[in-house]
């Protein structure tokens, strides 16, 4: 990658401003001042801006985040803080959520800059399972699990929901696993059977389970096994 493109991405500024910073001798490569943005960077070279190291990104990135309430999963929102606030990573704005959560929903969010990988999570035809811990306003009705297994009719939708697995933990606390991702689906499923979701927390996406020791707002890189669990394109397409 050219040095000026790399600096533009890292610093979030235009190429014109990058050229100005280069002329001001604020950039070094392997300890030497560089004033030309045309320099082709090698992966092993160290770039510094005002003596702060700028990390080169080698390959896609994958993270698990425990999302707290009050944050949106979009990367840019004029009205609400986004989950990028928690990611202390180079060029964090290039990361996106593989499966969003509502602003008031907590729990597992997967962040990546690998569009193909996230598509295998979000595409309806891959039927990637998601598991939620759900707190309800009213005690669970005896027939709700059977209704969810058969599929329920959501308001203003033509097709029934796909079969979902419902496990009762307490009268108003349940664990729900779904394999699709319709708009506000969990809340609308319970509304369809006369109940209301008070709290919603995502525990699992596919085979990736949220770490119990990740506090709200904390994150970590995914393991190689977790990344691979989403599956290779040729196996799922």
TrEMBL record:
It comes from the Bacteria. Residues 1-60 form the RNA-binding S4 domain. Pfam families: PseudoU_synth_2, S4. SMART domains: S4. Coiled coil: none annotated. Its EC number is 5.4.99.-. GO terms for molecular function: 16S rRNA pseudouridine(516) synthase activity. It is an enzyme of class 5 (isomerase). Keywords: Isomerase, RNA-binding. It catalyses: uridine(516) in 16S rRNA = pseudouridine(516) in 16S rRNA. InterPro entries: PsdUridine_s_RsuA/RluB/E/F_cat, PsdUridine_synth_cat_dom_sf, PsdUridine_synth_RsuA/RluA, PsdUridine_synth_RsuA/RluB/E/F, PsdUridine_synth_RsuA/RluB_CS, RsuA_PseudoU_synthase, S4_RNA-bd, S4_RNA-bd_sf. Belongs to the pseudouridine synthase RsuA family. Responsible for synthesis of pseudouridine from uracil-516 in 16S ribosomal RNA. This is Pseudouridine synthase. It comes from Serratia silvae. The lineage of its organism: Bacteria, Pseudomonadati, Pseudomonadota, Gammaproteobacteria, Enterobacterales. The gene is rsuA.
